[in-house]
Specification:
Blueprint: H1 3-8, H2 13-30
Length: 31
């Protein structure tokens, strides 16, 4: 739930990529 709004935030291209990869890993772990 906390990762949802964080990923929605308008992050930089480089930051969104690095964060997306880590967030996806966490998302998969959570799900």
């Amino acid at each position: 739930m906390l990762r949802g709004p964080i990923r929605r935030r308008p992050y930089n291209r480089g930051e969104i990529v690095a964060k997306n990869v880590r967030e996806m890993d966490v998302f998969y772990d959570f799900y």
